[in-house]
User: What shape does this take?
Amino acid sequence: MRILVVGSGGREHALVWKLSQEAEVIAAPGNPGMDCECFDVSATDLVGMESLCQRLAPDLVVVGPEDPLVAGLGDRLRTAGFNVFGPNADGAQLEASKAFSKEMMLRAGVPTASSGTFTDPEEALAYSSERFEAGFQVVVKASGNALGKGVVICLTLDEAEDAIAEMMIEGAFGEAGRTVVIEDRLIGREFSLLTIVSDGQFASLPVARDYKRALDGDRGPNTGGMGTYSPCDWISPRLLAETEARIVQPMVNQMVSDGISYRGVLFSGIMVVNGSPMCLEYNVRFGDPETQSVVRRLGFGFGEVLMAAAKGEPLPAVEASSDAAVTVVVASAGYPGSIKKGLPIQLEEMPEGVVVYHAGTKLSESQLVTNGGRVLAVSAIGKDLDEARELAYRGVAQVRFDGAFFRKDIASIG
Ligand SMILES: Nc1ncnc2c1ncn2[C@@H]1O[C@H](COP(=O)(O)OP(=O)(O)OP(=O)(O)O)[C@@H](O)[C@H]1O
Ligand SMILES: [Mg+2]
Assistant: This one.
């Protein structure tokens, strides 16, 4: 089986690493860490990607990032006869439009925070004011993709007013923020559930906990993710079963009855409120850096699962080991703010059990240099979390570039 992985980040490197154990893998555009042939076609170049597929004839195309899916890469390649893992543009709206996503959740009966969707700032403000009077705080969300900056938790009505003005009047996120979803603020612990969906059927992957904040102790600004670990002991089998029954299954059913053929990952963002799961959002792709830890625990046959989903067939089982995986992201100084690129990277020999995934690197005259905020993800496997954590940090110590920083508490704090 020949598999084309679309994308160039740490998540795609992890997919390449795993799938290479069972298939011939190629990537586009790929990154310098990938041990496979990479083709220089941008993930959002739909025409270029289709002609690459015509030339290479992959049996399966696995699309990593959401942008090409939202733009219709899935539709285009399917129409051309390829097996694609990743939803079509209609299914990708679950991530691309929070207004659409909320409306689907309501129709599917998925438990989620009460909300309103607005295109008029006056109405948005009036609604926020009502919610504060009713004793809630609100979260103002740009409906479209605002590069992770479009969600504002508002503790006061003044803060809500500012967020509404910024998004809807000043247009801080362009069209993405002209429509906002305003929802009640929930309080609880969060986790994400990644589920492989093959039209009406699904199978969840092992759960990973991710760390979004830049600094130790969950302080500092939000990032794309600074590390993960898996498994998560605090998520009981009962909580998982309830999450599947109340949040995954109804959405999968809803898509079938709406005529949306969904073949890809459904990523459910969950907050546990008084012991019960509430849905914060859906994404339509693998989590980054969750995938970097999760693939370390998966047994043989992952490629077959993705292929079955791509064809809308029954999903074979894929075993997860009881081992623990820990992934620590090494980032550029200044991340998630402005960063410097092009700094030389030294990678000393890694201990056994460590895999280094590249995320923001490039080759400059055969020297590996930094090329993004999140540069590398160092991932380790061990018999338990303590062992995996210790090994991951031994690996991190072997990475050197100017201003490299990482969190020191991955898998140490819950
Ligand atoms: N109703 C809510 N109550 C409390 N916190 C919330 C609520 N909605 C979102 N959040 C917080 O904001 C974060 C981002 O929200 P959400 O997942 O909707 O946005 P996003 O930009 O699509 O995120 P991602 O980049 O993970 O896809 C959540 O992980 C959660 O911490
Ligand atoms: Mg999202």
Notes: The longest helix spans residues 237-257. Residues 114-184 form a domain with the Dna Ligase; domain 1 fold (CATH 3.30.1490.20). Residues 95, 281, 283 surround magnesium ion (ligand 2) (CB under 6 Å). The chain has four domains: 2-88, 114-184, 189-311, 324-400.
